[in-house]
Amino acid sequence: MMMFMELTKDDRTLRQIPPAAAPRRGAAPWLVTAGLILAAFNLRPAIAGLGPVLAEVRADLGMSGAVAGLLTSVPALCFGLFGVAAPRLAARFGPVAVVVAGLAAVSAGLALRSLAGSTPLFLATTALALAGIAVGNVLMPVLVKRYFADDRAGPITGLYAMAFALGTACAAALTIPVTDASGGNWRLGLGVWAAAAAVAVLPWLAVLRRDRHDPARNSTDRYAGRDRTAGRVPVPRPAPEAAVPRSLARSGTARALALFFGLQATAAYVTLGWAPQIFRDAGVSATTAGLLLAVIMGVGAPLGFVLPRLAVRLRHQGPLVALLGACGLAGYAGLWWAPAGGAWLWAVLLGVSNCAFPVALTLIGLRARTATGVVRLSAFAQSTGYLLCVPGPLLVGALNEATGGWHAPLALMAALMVAQIAVGVRAGRDRCVEDDR
Q: pLDDT of 284-332, one tens digit each?
């Protein structure tokens, strides 16, 4: 029988509360699940769809090579800067309302970007879309914690991780065909993703409307509110804010998770930005290179569904993190020795390695006991991690330009992957940030 857990007054011991004490959920689980899937699908097309048509965008807008190079790091920078605001916004307006606003910003930013007639306007509208994505990044684990019991967190995280990978792969694979079908119009190829983001707003509007009739949803913690069914057993109140360390930077668990998040994001953005060029420089055609990128991103769809379910069953997620890292090291070795000869195998290995992302999201939910703790940990780990990964794609490009090849960049990525495994094993320990006091 599923049991709910409550922190006692000293915030250190746990006692079990019968399921009857659970507050009523305002929105139907299927509606929240649909919202999570659609939101996750739209968290990366703004980035993945740009690379295939970047040459056309540069030619049309007169964009310099330096600005084009910065576009590989701007997403991580925006995620780090704007993600910090997510906890305060969620505390004031509620996480669902913030997600609605974020998805609306994504849709508006992508639509306006497709109409931009200058580089500054293109960058400004891209930043608007990335700001909306940033709050979505932070609040996805929070919404899972808010609406689903702990034994459902793995499957639900897996569903939206799969949708995340599908959205990335679809944008990488379909932007060029849509552009070609419209007579080479890159604006339509990029703008079509604005419609997809607009659709994702709809289920969250319904969730928001239903939750307004449920006072138990006014708190950021899913255990807040009054029991309207039993009437005898008190519903546990949210753990006090003091249960979470005042500064998560002082928590070894939070620091390890932030470093792990940043290193896996570095690997993902380097792959997203540079893998097609590595393949093309090895003699692979542009079309095939685009398909290889789609494979890298698409591998995460089925694995993104399975791995979070596996992660929540493990007491220590370190071995899983190490296995994914080993796949990344094997992929880098393949790109070093035979980038064209085994291109499809290397793409699959890199795709498996990139599944460290859904594992990182799962760890965020596991390393804090309350939704209040999760929102703070999610903001800290993701904002810090994304800021840490900003230099990665730029440094890889600089090393390639300085050496005229890809051996030095691949050696750097291998070293970072070893570090990712080390901090990931540390973050995978069965310990919550509330324990680091």
A: 887 788 789 889 988 888 888 889 889 988 989 999 999 999 999 999 9
Are 103 and 199 in contact, with CB atoms under 8 Å apart? no
Apex 325 CA angle, 321 and 331, nearest 5:
155
Domains parsed from the chain with CATH numbers: 25-225+236-435 (1.20.1250.20)
Cα–Cα distance for residue pair 166/176, rounded to 1 Å: 16
Label the pairing between strands 4-7 and 14-17.
antiparallel
User: Residue 16, SS3?
Assistant: strand
In whole angstroms, give the CA distance from residue 29 to residue 149: 11
In this structure, which amino acid lies at residue 248?
L
Q: What angle do CA 372, 136, 40 make, to 5 degrees?
A: 120
Give the pLDDT confidence score for residue 174 in this predicted structure. Answer: 87
SS3 64: coil
The pair of structure tokens assigned to 199 is 């659709």
DSSP state of 433: G
Q: For the purposes of burial, counting CB atoms within 10 Å of the CB of 184, is it exposed (0-12), middle (13-18) or buried (19 or more)?
A: exposed
Asked whether the beta carbons of 308 and 157 are under 8 A apart, the reply is: yes
- The full DSSP string for 333-380 is HHHHH-TTTTHHHHHHHHHHHTTHHHHHHHHHHHS-SSHHHHHHHHHH
Structure tokens at 312: 């929540």
Predicted TM-score (pTM) of this structure: 0.74
